[in-house]
Amino acid sequence: MKLLSIIFILAFGLSAFGQKTVADLQPSHAIALEKFLSANKSFGFMSENFIDKNFGEKYLADMRKYFKKPLKPYYIVGDFNKDKITDFALILTREIPPKKAEDGDYFIYSLTVAIFNGSKKGTFTKAFSKNVEVPLNCFLNVESKQLYFGVFETDADTMIFTPVGKGYIIEFPEEG
Fold it and tell me: What is the pTM of this model?
């Protein structure tokens, strides 16, 4: 059993810089996500490969260069609810076909931001979800210890997720 656990951890931990498959998530996050997806068939995992496929080769590299740090656009880990226990958040697909944007230059996708709070036992519970209609160049990030969602190269869809009780509320940044 120990050998199986070690192989599992190595397989899930080798892709520290990408988010191409569920196996690229931290092992406990992958388990929590698989459990959630098996109970919620209308959601799916989003590979970061979607960005370059839809916006051209090197687009994701440009996003990472802009943020000046490693960026897994659809997956982020941190203590979002400030309880000193690690949480994680993902952007997930939904079973709704994309629509052309009003200008026709790109597509708008039906996605969901899901935040999973960690527990002292090492398990995770979905604490919040928000459906969004955005292009695939969206991302999750943490700035000033706040989890936020945005669309690269625009401020139009930016949302800050603030912990309240066992869940979160959405706040919008003040316009400067």
Answer: 0.87
